[in-house]
Amino acid sequence: MQETPVAPVSAAPTLIYKLFSIVERLDPARMFPQAQPLEVELGSGDGSFIVNYAKLHPEHNFLAVERLLGRLRKVDRKARRAGLTNLSGLRIESAYLLEYLLPPASVTAMHIYFPDPWPKRKHRKNRLINDRFTQLARAALVLGGVVYLRTDDRDYFEQMTLAFATNLAFRLVETPEELSNVVTDFERNFHARGVGTLRAAYSRAE
Asked: pTM of the entire structure?
């Protein structure tokens, strides 16, 4: 008796983008079905911010960047359940992406919310936001593009704001109320315990 051929089972759909190279710059046209302004979240956690914000702005594309695969898979599941086509995930270190993979002048907005504060003095060199970060952010942003920052750590916040204040390519701007209202689960838990959010935003002015 001849067996009926069985069609191969296709992989489950995913919004997680597979890198073809870690030395060539990304091509956003290969990551999204439609060419639109690009926003990037460095350290997306469980996706509670970027998925909800991408829902509000279908006219923009969003890249969720996360080092931990388990977290990125959560982002992927949430985005697919929401039916999003304007969101893609990438598993990579944020600092590496910023320095080596983002094309120059390709990003409209950059979101960095509650990055690891590395509170011990000897570990502060590991913090993502520093003088070098502002130089790399300027290269990746379009003119007028904005970096949005949030943290609960006052010491880190002072370091963030000093780094951007001393880079003359940036100017301090207001965070839109609509954006402030889209909170992460992490942030929501902090607010429930009475811990406030420290926010700042900087626009590339030159």
From this structure: 0.91
Q: Which helix (H) or strand (E) holds 106?
A: none
As to burial, measured by CB atoms within 10 angstroms (0-12 exposed, 13-18 middle, 19+ buried), residue 8 is exposed
> Following DSSP, what letter does each residue of 31-74 receive, concatenated?
H-SS---EEEEES-TTSTTHHHHHHH-TTSEEEEEES-HHHHHH
Report all structural domains of the chain as residue ranges with CATH numbers, in order of start. Answer: 30-204 (3.40.50.150)
Tokens linked to 111: 């979101």
Q: Residue 131 catalytic?
A: no
Instruction: Work out the number of other CB atoms within 10 angstroms of the CB of residue 32.
Output: 19
Percent of the chain scored above 90 by pLDDT? 79
Give SS3 for 185: helix
Residue-wise pLDDT tens digits, 52-93: 999 999 999 999 999 999 999 999 999 999 999 999 999 999
DSSP conformational letter for 1:
-
Tokens matching residue 178: 């609509």
Per-residue DSSP letter, 100: I
> Helices 154-165 and 131-140: crossing angle, nearest 10°?
60
Report d(CA 54, CA 82) in Å as an integer. Answer: 10
The secondary structure of residue 165, as a DSSP letter, is H
Q: Which of 27, 46, 76, 116 is catalytic?
A: 116
User: Pairing state of beta strands 141-151 and 198-204?
Assistant: antiparallel
Using a 10 angstrom Cβ sphere, with 0-12 exposed, 13-18 middle and 19 or more buried, the burial of residue 158 is: exposed
